[in-house]
């Protein structure tokens, strides 16, 4: 299987826009961190160790394609250009850490891009499942199935007291990080997010803006995940995240209703202005694009904007990132060139989306 | 002066915070100042990194009484040569054996990181899973045995004791087998 497929297509299955509560929860991610006995952790290992680990993990997974009913493609990070790596990072298929690693490492990606197993990231093995909408249990079951296949063939580093041993003490225990990516514009507009972040952090969970720690939430997208991995079972971690997510969804819905009730005109004006900006602007920074896309998405979810397809927005969120833009342009671009090209692509995509939709409805029966 | 956040670019922006009447000055590069500032003031009051946190906790325990001094942990992991100092500096382990080498120190670390928890609960790989289940079963039997003795049901206590012994034997042989592996 060739890598081009993963690079050229900005849509992954997790962006499909379906799944439960998909108007608020964009995606669910499960990550399991595992290490093998007998090798140092990637932070300390030699190239020779890296190579051996990579071979045995990759071989085990590729052999299990049939059992798992999955078709993994193995991608050697070393073989990729810098730009290709960035594109995979922007699609959340590999992490920046793996992309920049000088040692042998790889990513095994399933056909639908829902599963990617990173080899020699911070830990020897990182199993990652990315599902659309709110599907914590489903995503965990998928990750668990892969984990079981690996543990049968490979000897995991495990300690009776500390559980699965990981390079970073924040992952020790279950090695499980469960997270949901939520679009929370109404809670942000009504300035309730800081309060919610404080409450959640007391419950062993963390809330972050989508692009890393400490950053302001780009496009009102927040990631909620478990902080505790030790002393709490997988089931409890999942149940707690599920319950917190449901409560936040409820609060977001209430905030949306309140906005509609108290300031419908202002809201509608703001959302349509953003649609206008996306449709006509000539220069677009990442921040502005994210803000506008968030507004339009809210408009669609609330039934205020009708003729834009939500999958287009999910796709736009991905391809407006620097790496993807350059992949599309087929050349490197500096910041201001990117802003021009981003505006152009967004314009085209939104128009094309609208047209395709009317076409499909009126004349084509595909 | 370099940026306190990224520690790469030169610091160009000074952010002054007032907290409980005290003034704090922080120095950032333009990039970090832009990205940190909006959120920063409101909920992240100290840009402590994980390794700084770890070092700070250990400094605290150092001030505590003698016990700590007597149970001095090995300073280096036998398997990978990673020192406890390096663990504190980087906030990461060098290999799985580090957990064993620094075992005595770890509960302090984990307590802070994981809401007071120091031991794993949950899934275990195949062989370990059975062993753990066996251990738990023995523990339960022992508790039942204690209760039986307290209520003077000695016959039942004896049965429970035998049951526990049997399981312990099983555990011991099972343990040997995994060593051979």
UniProtKB/TrEMBL annotation, chain A:
PANTHER family in the record: ARGININE KINASE 1-RELATED (PTHR11547:SF38), ARGININE OR CREATINE KINASE (PTHR11547)
Ranges spanned by the short sequence motif RDXXRA motif of the pArg binding pocket involved in allosteric regulation, renumbered to the chain: 338-343
Protein name: Protein-arginine kinase
UniProt entry keywords in alphabetical sequence: Allosteric enzyme, ATP-binding, Kinase, Nucleotide-binding, Transferase
Primary enzyme class: transferase
Signal peptide span: none
Record comment: activity regulation: Appears to be allosterically activated by the binding of pArg-containing polypeptides to the pArg-binding pocket localized in the C-terminal domain of McsB.
Function, in words: Catalyzes the specific phosphorylation of arginine residues in a large number of proteins. Is part of the bacterial stress response system. Protein arginine phosphorylation has a physiologically important role and is involved in the regulation of many critical cellular processes, such as protein homeostasis, motility, competence, and stringent and stress responses, by regulating gene expression and protein activity.
Automatic annotation (TrEMBL), chain B:
Signal peptide: none
Any GO BP: stress response to cadmium ion
Single Gene Ontology MF annotation: zinc ion binding
Database matches in InterPro entries: UVR_dom (IPR001943), UVR_dom_sf (IPR036876), YacH (IPR025542)
Any coiled-coil regions, as ranges: 150-177
Protein name according to UniProt: Nucleotide excision repair protein
Origin superkingdom: Bacteria
Assigned keywords, A-Z: Coiled coil
Gene3D superfamilies (UniProt xref): UVR domain (4.10.860.10)
Occurrences of domain UVR (ranges): 135-170
């Amino acid at each position: 299987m060739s890598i081009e497929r993963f690079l050229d297509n900005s849509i992954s299955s997790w962006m499909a826009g379906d799944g439960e509560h998909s108007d608020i929860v964009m995606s669910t991610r499960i990550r399991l961190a595992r290490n093998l006995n007998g090798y140092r952790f990637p932070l300390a290992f030699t190239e020779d160790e890296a190579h051996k680990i990579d071979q045995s993990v990759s071989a085990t997974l590729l052999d299990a394609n049939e059992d798992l009913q999955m078709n993994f493609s193995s991608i050697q990070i070393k073989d990729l250009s810098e730009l290709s790596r960035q594109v995979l990072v922007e699609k959340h298929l590999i992490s920046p850490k793996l992309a920049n690693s000088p040692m042998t490492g790889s990513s095994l990606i399933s056909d639908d891009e829902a599963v990617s197993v990173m080899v020699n990231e911070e830990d020897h093995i990182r199993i990652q499942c990315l599902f659309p909408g709110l599907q914590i249990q489903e995503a965990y079951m998928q990750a668990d199935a892969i984990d079981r296949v690996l543990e049968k063939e490979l000897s995991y580093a495990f300690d009776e007291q500390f559980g699965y041993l990981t390079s970073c003490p924040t992952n020790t225990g279950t090695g499980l990080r469960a997270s949901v990516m939520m679009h929370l514009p109404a809670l942000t507009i009504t300035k309730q997010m800081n309060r919610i972040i404080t409450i959640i952090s007391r419950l062993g969970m963390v809330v972050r803006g989508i692009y890393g720690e400490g950053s302001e939430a780009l496009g009102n997208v927040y990631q909620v995940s478990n902080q505790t991995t030790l002393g709490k079972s997988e089931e409890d971690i999942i149940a707690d995240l599920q319950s917190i997510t449901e409560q936040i969804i409820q609060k977001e819905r209430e905030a949306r209703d309140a906005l509609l009730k108290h300031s419908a005109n202002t809201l509608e004006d703001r959302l349509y202005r953003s649609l206008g900006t996306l449709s006509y602007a000539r220069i677009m920074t990442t921040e502005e694009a994210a803000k506008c896309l968030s507004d339009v998405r809210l408009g669609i979810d609330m039934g205020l904007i009708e003729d834009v397809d939500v999958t287009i927005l999910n796709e736009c969120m991905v391809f407006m990132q620097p790496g993807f833009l350059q992949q599309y342009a087929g050349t490197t671009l500096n910041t201001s060139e990117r802003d021009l090209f981003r505006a152009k692509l967004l314009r085209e995509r939104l128009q094309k989306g609208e047209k395709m939709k009317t076409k499909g409805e009126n004349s084509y029966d595909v | 002066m370099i940026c306190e956040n990224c520690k790469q670019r030169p610091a160009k922006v000074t952010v002054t915070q007032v907290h409980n009447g005290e003034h704090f000055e922080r120095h950032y590069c333009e990039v970090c100042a832009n990205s940190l500032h909006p959120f920063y003031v409101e909920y992240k009051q100290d840009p402590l990194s994980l390794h700084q946190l770890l070092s700070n906790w250990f400094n605290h325990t150092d001030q505590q009484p003698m016990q700590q001094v007597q149970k001095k942990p090995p300073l280096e992991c036998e398997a990978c040569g990673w020192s406890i100092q390096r663990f504190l500096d980087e906030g990461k382990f060098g290999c799985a054996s580090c957990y064993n080498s620094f075992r005595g120190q770890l509960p302090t670390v984990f307590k802070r990181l994981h809401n007071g928890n120091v031991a794993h609960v949950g899934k275990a790989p195949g062989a370990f899973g059975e062993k753990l289940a066996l251990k738990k079963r023995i523990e339960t039997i022992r508790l039942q045995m204690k209760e039986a003795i307290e209520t003077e049901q000695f016959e039942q206590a004896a049965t429970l004791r035998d049951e526990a012994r049997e399981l312990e034997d099983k555990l011991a042989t099972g343990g040997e087998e995994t060593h051979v592996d």
